[in-house]
């Protein structure tokens, strides 16, 4: 009996040991890459390792990062950057880091996540750092909302300016279909959609499987009616959608019913929508100004962008300077748990500035956060030149962002619904109003 | 007695590791979920007591109605298609007159072992309104019906449910086939001698004797339907709007998109409760009929 008992105990002990060993083996070996003093510089001094969680998956994201890191080596040779490549997962990986107390020294995230991190003390307040004052002095005009949050704090160093959405169009297709440009009104755009459909083209390709793009489309229409854009849904605490928003919803519905969008739009992803546009099947495409590089590469001088149409020509002319992009905080943030916080703040500010430098001087993008004293060396696409010459000098105001997640989500859901036949403006307003009434109590 | 007790101890000791693991990975998280559902918690900050507010808000949440409706619809499609067709195929494969039964059985099970992502992508292509196989097939057969399978708020949930039903029908088939094969052949022979047709014999003998198998298959279909998620995520991202939301999609949204973990825990509790309720009802119904 005793033997049996001992056998059972032996099995138990073996099992426990196995489990504990497995658990040890399963520990994240990445920890070795987290900040700390390790490795040595060539002169024998110890290097400070700074772990950076940043996007680094294509040319647009990898090149500016690599450039910034190379510049950092000259400026701070005692700092070594350990890259932790960000994944496009809605910042879940980053939130998991935060939940497990394993935050990288520097990370890149959006305003929604920053708000959660601010509440849980996972983001360093940068307000009183000398680097922040320096950054502010270099900030391009009108970009205060990119650096300073609505609550008055600084959470991140941004590297882009306020980005906005454009309607791209294929000039050749427009010419073939006999469509006059510029299109100034909603009616003209609806009419163009009919002509393009009749000619066998998809009038506008839109990757509406992603809800943000339908929201961006709606924002383009809203900003023509209300310069402040979505921010007014929060700032003024309306219990129901203001007239400008209802008008924009009616316009969006009119365009949908006029056949501007493909029937499968809400199940079309970016690759499908962009390939429709680049292959000449679609006459228009909607995306941010960052699409300029790809579209120039794919369509050359056949492609151009147009301003958002308005209810009439007078509104079109008077509201040209109201930009639909909304500035919200974002960029490189610093973790309060960083072992080298002071250095991390310096590095975050430096990286953001060098990102801007690369985007401005090499890519020719004027939409950067800070003033760059280097000349543009790269070839600037004509569409970007138009933005630099026509748009930016004439900006009257930028839209303001909505911080409330519930309001943001209900707009996302229902702008996507607007692309579906049978979904009415009344349903749109009822759905959004229900949330507004609840959140703006 | 002593020996019995020491055996019990040994048994307990053998069971202990598994029980410990089960407690850590199942029981503790379940209890935590219930506990957290009474808090306002973003997953990172300190949770604040919220009482039953999360549940009260949930009752007023229009997404709950959408999700419940979709879940039930999904479950209905799974139950009818998988169990109905599964039964027909199981009976056919048990019939010695059918040639190539081994091949058929294998082919029914192939979709089950395929990756859900691959299957979903395949059906996305087939459901494409302009170039998809299904609309083209209707055209070819001169059936005047063209549908936006995945962008129609009403049709898309059924279309997605069908994909799930098609993929996992083989699993239900294998259960039903085992059920059919477990019935002694003498019963069927007796029924045939008594003058029953093949169909009548199945209706009067085979199907009633498979009650336990049906009970399990129905529980699987209903709980899978209520908790469906992956297919919606891949095929339509829950859209257009929120028309393809289920309870699991709600949990995903509130937890991972809105960082509202307390509320997501409340939805989880509702989901588990509904699954348990469905299981109890099915069990009771079948057991009552047994009596």
From TrEMBL, chain A:
<dbReference type="GO" id="GO:0030313">
    <property type="term" value="C:cell envelope"/>
</dbReference>
<dbReference type="InterPro" id="IPR006059">
    <property type="entry name" value="SBP"/>
</dbReference>
<protein>
    <submittedName>
        <fullName>Sugar ABC transporter substrate-binding protein</fullName>
    </submittedName>
</protein>
<dbReference type="InterPro" id="IPR050490">
    <property type="entry name" value="Bact_solute-bd_prot1"/>
</dbReference>
<keyword id="KW-0813">Transport</keyword>
<dbReference type="Pfam" id="PF01547">
    <property type="entry name" value="SBP_bac_1"/>
</dbReference>
<comment type="similarity">
    <text>Belongs to the bacterial solute-binding protein 1 family.</text>
</comment>
<feature type="signal peptide">
    <location>
        <begin position="1"/>
        <end position="23"/>
    </location>
</feature>
<keyword id="KW-0732">Signal</keyword>
From TrEMBL, chain B:
<keyword id="KW-1133">Transmembrane helix</keyword>
<keyword id="KW-1003">Cell membrane</keyword>
<protein>
    <submittedName>
        <fullName>Sugar ABC transporter permease</fullName>
    </submittedName>
</protein>
<feature type="transmembrane region" description="Helical">
    <location>
        <begin position="12"/>
        <end position="31"/>
    </location>
</feature>
<dbReference type="GO" id="GO:0055085">
    <property type="term" value="P:transmembrane transport"/>
</dbReference>
<dbReference type="InterPro" id="IPR051393">
    <property type="entry name" value="ABC_transporter_permease"/>
</dbReference>
<feature type="transmembrane region" description="Helical">
    <location>
        <begin position="72"/>
        <end position="94"/>
    </location>
</feature>
<dbReference type="InterPro" id="IPR035906">
    <property type="entry name" value="MetI-like_sf"/>
</dbReference>
<keyword id="KW-0472">Membrane</keyword>
<keyword id="KW-0812">Transmembrane</keyword>
<keyword id="KW-0813">Transport</keyword>
<feature type="transmembrane region" description="Helical">
    <location>
        <begin position="106"/>
        <end position="127"/>
    </location>
</feature>
<dbReference type="Pfam" id="PF00528">
    <property type="entry name" value="BPD_transp_1"/>
</dbReference>
<dbReference type="InterPro" id="IPR000515">
    <property type="entry name" value="MetI-like"/>
</dbReference>
<feature type="domain" description="ABC transmembrane type-1">
    <location>
        <begin position="68"/>
        <end position="282"/>
    </location>
</feature>
<comment type="similarity">
    <text>Belongs to the binding-protein-dependent transport system permease family.</text>
</comment>
<dbReference type="GO" id="GO:0005886">
    <property type="term" value="C:plasma membrane"/>
</dbReference>
<feature type="transmembrane region" description="Helical">
    <location>
        <begin position="213"/>
        <end position="234"/>
    </location>
</feature>
<feature type="transmembrane region" description="Helical">
    <location>
        <begin position="261"/>
        <end position="282"/>
    </location>
</feature>
<feature type="transmembrane region" description="Helical">
    <location>
        <begin position="147"/>
        <end position="166"/>
    </location>
</feature>
């Amino acid at each position: 009996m005793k033997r049996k008992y001992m056998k059972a105990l032996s099995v138990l002990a073996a099992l426990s040991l196995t489990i504990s060993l497995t658990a040890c083996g399963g520990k994240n070996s990445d920890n070795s890459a987290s900040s700390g003093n390790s490795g040595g510089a060539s002169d024998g001094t110890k290097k400070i390792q700074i772990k950076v969680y940043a996007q680094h998956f294509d040319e647009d994201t990898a090149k500016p990062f690599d450039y910034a890191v190379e510049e950092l080596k000259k400026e701070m040779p005692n700092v070594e950057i350990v890259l932790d490549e960000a994944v496009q997962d809605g910042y879940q990986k980053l939130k998991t880091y935060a939940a497990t107390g394993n935050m990288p020294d520097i990370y890149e995230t959006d305003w929604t996540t920053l708000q959660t991190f601010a509440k849980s003390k996972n983001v360093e307040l940068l307000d009183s750092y000398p680097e922040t004052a320096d950054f502010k002095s270099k900030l391009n005009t009108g970009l205060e909302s990119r650096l300073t949050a609505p609550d008055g704090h600084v959470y991140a160093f941004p590297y882009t300016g306020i980005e906005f959405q454009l309607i791209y169009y294929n000039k050749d297709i427009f010419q073939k279909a006999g469509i006059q440009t510029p299109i100034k009104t909603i009616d003209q755009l609806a009419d163009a959609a009919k002509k393009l459909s009749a000619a066998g083209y998809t009038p506008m390709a839109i990757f509406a499987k992603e809800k943000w793009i339908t929201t961006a489309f709606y924002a383009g229409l809203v900003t023509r009616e209300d310069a402040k854009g979505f921010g007014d849904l929060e700032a003024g605490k309306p219990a129901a959608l203001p007239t400008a928003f209802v008008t924009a919803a009616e316009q969006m519905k009119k365009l949908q019913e006029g056949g501007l969008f493909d029937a499968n739009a809400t199940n079309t992803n970016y690759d499908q929508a962009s390939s429709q546009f680049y292959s000449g099947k679609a006459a228009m495409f909607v995306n941010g100004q960052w699409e300029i590089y790809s579209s120039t590469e794919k369509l050359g001088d056949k492609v151009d962008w147009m301003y958002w149409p308005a209810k009439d020509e007078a509104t079109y002319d008077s509201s040209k300077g109201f930009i639909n992009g909304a500035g919200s905080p974002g960029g490189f943030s610093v973790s309060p748990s960083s072992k080298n916080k002071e250095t991390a703040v310096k590095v975050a500010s430096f990286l953001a500035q060098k990102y801007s430098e690369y985007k401005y001087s090499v890519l020719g993008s004027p939409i950067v956060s800070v003033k760059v004293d280097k000349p543009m060396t790269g070839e600037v696409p004509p569409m970007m030149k138009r933005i630099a010459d026509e748009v930016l000098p004439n900006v009257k105001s930028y839209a303001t962002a909505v911080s409330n997640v519930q309001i943001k989500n209900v707009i996302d859901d229902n702008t996507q619904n607007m692309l579906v036949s049978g979904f009415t403006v009344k349903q749109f307003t009822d759905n959004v109003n229900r949330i507004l009434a609840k959140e703006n109590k | 007695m002593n020996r019995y007790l020491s055996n019990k101890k040994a048994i307990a000791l053998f069971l202990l590791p598994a029980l410990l693991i089960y407690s850590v990975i199942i029981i503790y998280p379940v209890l935590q979920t219930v506990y957290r559902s009474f808090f306002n918690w973003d997953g990172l900050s300190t949770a604040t007591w919220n009482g039953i507010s999360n549940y009260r808000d949930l009752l007023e949440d229009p997404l709950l109605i959408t999700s419940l409706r979709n879940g039930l619809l999904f479950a209905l499609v799974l139950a009818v298609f998988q169990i109905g067709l599964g039964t027909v195929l199981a009976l056919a494969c048990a019939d010695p007159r059918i040639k190539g039964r081994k091949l058929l059985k294998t082919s029914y099970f192939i979709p089950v072992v395929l990756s859900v992502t691959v299957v979903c992508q395949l059906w996305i292509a087939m459901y494409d309104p302009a170039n998809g196989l299904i609309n083209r097939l209707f055209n070819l057969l001169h059936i005047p019906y063209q549908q936006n399978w995945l962008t129609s708020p009403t049709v898309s949930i059924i279309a997605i449910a069908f994909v799930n039903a098609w993929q996992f029908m083989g699993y239900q088939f294998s259960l039903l086939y085992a059920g059919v094969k477990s019935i002694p052949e003498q019963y069927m022979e007796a029924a045939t001698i008594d003058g029953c047709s093949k169909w009548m014999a199945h209706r009067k003998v085979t199907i009633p004797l498979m009650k336990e198998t049906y009970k399990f298959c129905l529980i699987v279909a209903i709980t899978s339907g209520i908790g469906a998620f992956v297919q919606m995520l891949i095929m339509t991202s829950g859209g257009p709007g929120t028309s393809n939301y289920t309870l699991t999609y709600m949990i995903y949204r509130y937890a991972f998109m809105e960082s509202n973990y307390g509320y997501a825990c409340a939805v989880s509790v509702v989901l588990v409760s509904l699954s348990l309720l469905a299981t109890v009802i099915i069990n009771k119904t079948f057991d009552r009929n047994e009596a």
